[in-house]
Design brief:
The protein is α+β, with helices and mostly antiparallel strands. The chain has one domain: Aspartate Aminotransferase, domain 1 (Alpha-Beta Complex), CATH 3.90.1150.30. The chain is about 30% helix and about 25% strand. It has a six-stranded antiparallel β-sheet. It is globular. It starts with a helix and ends in a 16-residue tail after the last helix. The model has no long low-confidence stretch (mean pLDDT about 90).
């Protein structure tokens, strides 16, 4: 599935002052990472937001938000935010800030070790 490049660019502009933000294509979309953890992603024109378990219920109570069920089962701590909930810059900023706060509570991910075939 393609991702909305316009939404991805809006995210880039809002996180440009943050250190250590990277991008990775995954889930058929684009993920934005902080310290090795995905905090938001773009799938189609929908935002994948990693709000964490504490903010999960509150996030679901907001308009244009639904459970992230990428695998067919709801993923606790993750929500989808539909395009209608991202119209204003302040809406998108809310999600980015909430998700960065969440991943800032997680330990940094260790670098992945190269697979045996990649070490040859």
């Amino acid at each position: 599935m393609a991702f909305d490049e316009g939404l991805a660019q809006r995210i880039r502009e809002l996180v440009q002052a943050q250190r250590g933000i990277t991008e990775r294509r995954m889930f058929g979309g684009l993920a934005f990472m902080s310290r090795g953890h995905m905090f938001v992603g773009v799938l189609g024109n929908t935002l994948m937001a990693r709000v964490g378990p504490i903010e999960y219920a509150g996030a679901l109570a907001r308009r244009h938000v639904r459970e992230m069920d990428f695998t067919g089962e709801p993923m606790k701590g993750y929500v989808y935010v539909d395009a209608a909930g991202l119209v204003e810059e302040s809406d998108l900023r809310h999600w980015i800030d909430a998700c960065l706060r969440n991943v800032d509570t997680l330990p940094p991910k260790a670098p992945k070790e190269a697979s045996p075939s990649a070490r040859r």
